Amino acid sequence: MPYIGNEPSADFTSLSKQDLTGSSGASITLSHAVANAEDVALYINNVRQEPTTSYTTNGNILNFVNYTVSASDDIYVLFLGKAIQTTVPPDGSVGTAKIASSAVDLTSKVTGVLPVANGGTGYTNNLAWHFTIGDGSSSGAYIADPMDFNFIQVDTHNIFSTSTNKITIPRTGLYFMTFGGIKANTTSVGRMHILKNNNVIGPQARGEENSGYAQMYGAFTASLSQGDVLHAESLNAGMWTGGANTLGGNDPHWSGFYIGA
Fold first, then answer.
1. 93 or 39: which carries more pLDDT confidence?
2. Does CATH place domain 128-260 in 3.40.50.10320?
3. Between 85 and 206, where is the model more confident?
4. What is the pTM of this model?
5. Could you tell me the residue ranges of all domains in the chain?
6. What are the CB-based long-range contacts (under 8 Å, 24+) for 161-166?
């Protein structure tokens, strides 16, 4: 058929609906004026009424023929005369199968973090942790596997389990970690290291023998997978735990953060 203007590439019919439940009496007011009764489909209690026989219209007034309605009646109308042809599908009318793979660029349409169910990780790039141990004593020789960090200074994504004293990596990628403290005041070697799935990874923080108190620190990067379980271990001479709720310093500590994929 001929068109005035540009011919649309695809047509979809969209109807306007007005819910009039709660109306009562011999007439109702429409939200839009219509030319005649055939321009609207009237439904009362989900039964369609016959135009001109059951109702007539005059502009935006719809009159019932020889009956009235009560507020308990379920009443609505569809504006047939307002049906328009458009190249934009009605809301909620496009199914998943109609959308091509990778057709939607979520990075330009969605802000925040995608939930795991939608292919996201549920985490932002600021994944980080910092744990310390301090019992307030003046000296000690702390030895533990795993180390039971009692001050969780930073844990942005709640990855530390207080029941196991281990963390579970929530996101695959590259991580940077530091750890250490001070060796206990003994003549033995002090050691601390990090384990992934019960296997040592990275360097060992070491305090030499015959040195009394000695600082021991380690730092490294590691490629980790989602679900990897990490923990820290102190052994041999052990470590000094004389601090109390400090941010690290001389107390045994373990820090890490996510670098990127």
1. 39
2. no
3. 206
4. 0.52
5. 12-86, 128-260
6. 164/231, 165/231, 166/229, 166/230, 166/231
Q: Is 228 left (phi over 0), alpha (psi -120 to 50) or beta?
A: beta
What does the pLDDT look like over 40-64, one tens digit per residue? 999 999 999 999 999 999 989 999 9
Give me 212's structure tokens. Answer: 């009394």
User: What is the rounded CA–CA span in Å between residue 44 and residue 73?
Assistant: 7
Residues 6 or more apart whose CB falls under 8 angstroms from that of 184 comprise: 139, 140, 141, 142, 190, 213, 237, 238, 239, 240
C-alpha span between 255 and 160 (Å, rounded): 12
The per-residue pLDDT for range 200-225, each reduced to its tens digit, is 999 988 877 665 677 788 999 999 99
Distance (Å, whole) CA 51 – CA 40: 8
Listed in sequence order, the residues at least 6 apart from 241 whose beta carbon sits closer than 8 Å to its beta carbon are: 133, 134, 135, 137, 140, 142, 251, 252
Q: Among 78, 82, 71, 39, which residue's Cα sits nearest to residue 57?
A: 39
Residue entry with tokens 């005041």: 185
* 138-164 pLDDT, tens digit each: 455 677 889 888 889 999 999 999 999
Residues 6+ apart with CB under 8 A from 173: 223, 224, 258, 259, 260, 261
The full DSSP string for 113-146 is ---GGGT--S--TT-EEEEE-----S---EEESS
Nearest partner of 146 among 179, 186, 182, 171, judged by Cα: 179
Phi and psi (nearest 5°) for 98? -85, -5
Round to whole Å and give the CA distance between 237 and 234: 8
